[in-house]
Specification:
With 386 residues, the protein is an alpha/beta fold. It has a single domain, classed as TIM Barrel (Alpha-Beta Barrel), CATH 3.20.20. It has helices at 38-49, 81-93, 158-174, 189-194, 209-226, 247-257, 289-298, 312-320, 331-335, 339-346, 357-368; strands spanning 10-12, 15-17, 21-23, 54-61, 97-103, 136-137, 151-152, 179-184, 233-238, 264-268, 303-305, 326-328. The strands form three sheets. Strands 3-4-5-8-9-10-11-12 form an eight-stranded parallel beta barrel, surrounded by six helices. Strands 1-2 form a two-stranded antiparallel sheet. It has a two-stranded parallel sheet with strand order 6-7. Strand 1 and strand 2 (15-17) form a beta hairpin. The radius of gyration is 21 Å and the shape is globular. Bound molecules: flavin mononucleotide. Flavin mononucleotide binds next to strand 4 and helix 9. The site of flavin mononucleotide has 20 residues, from strand 4 and helix 9. Residues 6-344 form the NADH:flavin oxidoreductase/NADH oxidase N-terminal domain.
Length: 386
């Protein structure tokens, strides 16, 4: 049997992933004053032990004022390096490659938890730095009704923000992360510079498409100067935001970004407005995959597909079709943190060899000794749904 592509190693610069299964960044809303707690280690550890090739730590903010909500992690100062390095260690010790996403929420900063009805946070004595936690953006255009107008960044402030990204990248390297992803999606700061809807600037950073690309490209360049040559750099993009930034714009952006040292694109969508996406396919299996395929083909860059990729056979088909090079599985890993072990078994591999030996040996013994039943997660896969 030939090894399924999903479980074929991939090399990017000097980093080798044991397979193509990626856990994308997922906020835990549990940081304390920007620092990770035990839960963050448990969370990333269970995904690494569950067989993923690459596990990303959540969107970690490059500036305090870029925090999306209470509980965000920070890499805005050197003192954050040592505590977050524990997460990189836990991932690596469990056989996976440690990645981290850097972010800045821009005009969507200072928000409520998703389960408390999304919206801006209200002033409260529990947030002593409420005023310093100021939403900033390319222009003073509020994210949605009920949100405050962000303060438009002065031209003279932009180099400082670019440097914040670069310094956070330097810290991510020092903390032991091997893959870095810049959050250029979901309506946050870098995406909002690209957006003709959110960016109404009249200087060199707004107006024409080339001008709107300037700030994110300068960030990428500054980050690359701090992020080692042998470590891969990913971007997460909103391939369609339903507000003027779509697939063709992204192809042009990636063609400009790639020569700056970008290695792969994580193809997501949405976030510029609070309107639900207009895509007819939005709640269907792999709805964002066609964009990963388009970008891979037209910008000639490795892509990561994400969004309702649920089953191993579904993931394998995306790779076999040449639509993407990596498969990110988010919420389904929350449902089943052993997703990669499970997918390997269902694709006909031993599977238990990607689990830590303390579990894998027992489980493979159980199978070898002729136990005739199936694991509790057993269902045949997407093919059964079609
Ligand atoms: C709890 C949770 C937190 C998330 N946090 C982030 C984040 O920090 N950065 C980001 O780019 N996307 C974030 N996302 C989006 C996921 O990375 C992923 O793109 C999305 O869940 C779709 O993939 P899925 O259908 O496999 O879950 C988050 C999603 C969830 C469910």
């Amino acid at each position: 049997m030939t090894t399924p592509l999903l479980f074929t190693p991939l090399e990017l610069r000097g980093v080798r992933l044991r397979n193509r299964v990626v856990v994308p960044p997922m906020l835990q809303y549990k940081g304390e004053a920007g620092l990770p707690v035990d839960w963050h280690a448990i969370n990333v550890g269970r995904f690494a032990a569950g067989g993923a090739g690459l596990v990303f730590v959540e969107s970690t903010k490059v500036e305090r004022r870029g925090a999306g909500t209470v509980g965000d992690l920070l890499l805005s100062e050197d003192r954050f390096v040592e505590p977050i390095s524990r997460l990189a260690r836990v991932i690596a010790e469990n056989g996976s490659v440690p990645g981290i996403q850097l972010g800045h929420s821009g005009r969507k900063a200072r928000g409520r938890f998703p389960w408390q009805q999304r919206g801006p946070l209200e002033r409260s004595p529990e947030i002593p730095d409420f005023d310093a936690w100021e939403p900033v953006a390319p222009s003073a255009v509020p994210f949605a009704e009920g949100w405050p107008a962000p303060r438009a960044l002065e031209l003279s402030e932009l180099p400082g923000v670019i440097d914040a990204w670069a310094q956070a990248a330097r810290r991510a390297h020092r903390a032991g992360f091997e893959v870095l992803e810049l959050h250029v999606a979901h309506g946050f700061l870098l995406h909002s510079f690209l957006s003709p809807h959110a960016n109404r600037r009249e200087d060199a950073y707004g107006g024409s498409e080339a001008n709107r690309m300037r700030f994110p490209l300068e960030v990428i360049e500054a980050v690359r100067a701090q992020w080692p040559e042998d470590k891969p750099l990913f971007l997460r993009l909103s391939m369609e935001d339903d507000a003027g930034w779509g697939p063709d714009e992204n192809v042009r952006f990636v063609r400009a970004a790639k020569p700056l040292g970008v290695d792969a694109i994580d193809c997501s969508s949405g976030g510029t407005t609070d309107k639900p996406p207009s895509l007819p396919t939005v709640n269907t299996y792999g709805f964002q995959v066609p964009w990963a395929a388009k970008l891979r083909r037209e910008a000639e860059i490795p892509t990561m597909a994400v969004g309702l990729i649920i089953h191993g056979d579904q993931a394998e088909r995306i790779l076999q079709d040449g639509d993407a090079d990596l498969i990110a599985v988010g919420r389904e890993f929350l449902h089943n943190p052993n997703w990669a072990v499970d997918a390997a078994l269902k694709l006909g591999l031993d599977g238990y060899d990607v689990a830590p030996v303390q579990a894998g040996w027992w489980l493979s013994q159980r199978a070898k000794r002729g136990f005739g039943g199936n694991p509790s997660t057993w269902q045949t896969g997407r093919a059964a749904d079609d």
